[in-house]
Amino acid sequence: MTPTILVVEDEPDLRALVVHNVEASGMASLSCSTGSEALALAARHKPDLILLDLMLPDLLGGEVCRRLRADPVLAQTPIIMLTARTAEVDRVQGFEAGADDYISKPFSTRELILRVRAVLRRRQQAVAPETTRLTAGGIEIDAARHQVHIDGAEVKLTALEFRLLSTLLERRGRVQTRQMLLEDVWGVSPDLHTRTVDTHVKRLREHLGPAGDAIETVRGVGYCFRAPQEG
After folding, report:
1. Exposed, middle or buried, 6 (CB in 10 Å: 0-12/13-18/19+)?
2. Shortest CA distance to 48 belongs to which of 126, 114, 127, 120?
3. What is the CATH number for 193?
4. 123-142, pLDDT tens digit by residue?
């Protein structure tokens, strides 16, 4: 099935260039120039991925991203932020808003398409094929369907929350430092000082309810998934 990419960019020439390359790569496209249009198009067409400019004339890309993540239907739609800002702290703010990846302008269109395909691939296979199902502490992850169930009931997670839970559950019983999680889940420098990991773990625990207690805080270090029976 041909994936549909929503391109949200207020610079007409750049928007046309991105749309051209998306379509030349065999994908379908939708496009707009404002955050409000992006929210309306996403709700109507449910794209497979959104390329979202950070600086838009009406709503900042971060706000658009947060609203998409708050929508149960669109919460898991992959989002790649496009921005002229290059500071690593800006990348982290994008991830904290719920972005799956971050590309700084100017960028090569070849790299852009490669990153789009990589995020789409990650969305469908969050863990390796040999571990498409992970189960512990009443939590079951089905990577092939990108679903999480707790005691048989499905729980909706964003793509980033799904990767975070998959990483912790795959490595259960082993402490994961914040630096390790930043590098392996977010793909940013492990030297960066940020509370983005803590923020996402807090949200993940809220989504998981009582099962979230299996994610143990290791004070001053990071987190560890321990199912109740594992002590």
Report:
1. buried
2. 120
3. 1.10.10.10
4. 765 434 445 678 887 899 88
Give the chain's domain count.
2
Domain that holds residue 156: 129-230
Environment class of residue 166 by beta-carbon count within 10 Å: exposed (0-12), middle (13-18) or buried (19+)?
A: buried
Which of 124, 146, 163 is a domain's end point? Answer: 124
Tell whether 109 and 137 lie within a shared domain: no
Query: pTM for the complete prediction?
Result: 0.62
Within this chain, do residues 115 and 163 fall inside the same structural domain, yes or no?
A: no
Q: Please, which residues bridge with residue 135 across strands?
A: 140
Proportion of the chain above pLDDT 70, given as a percent? 85
Query: Distance between CA atoms of 135 and 111, rounded to whole angstroms?
Result: 36
- Name the pLDDT band for 51 (thresholds 50, 70, 90): very high
Count CB neighbours of 216 within 10 A.
13
Residues 157 and 144 in one domain: yes
* Stated length of the chain: 231
**106 upstream amide cis, omega within 30 of 0:** yes
Nearest Cα neighbor of 36 from 11, 16, 13, 56 is 56
Structure tokens at 79: 């989002």
Instruction: Please check whether residue 29 is in contact with residue 19, taking contact to mean a CB–CB distance below 8 angstroms.
Output: yes
Which of helix, strand or coil describes residue 142? Answer: strand
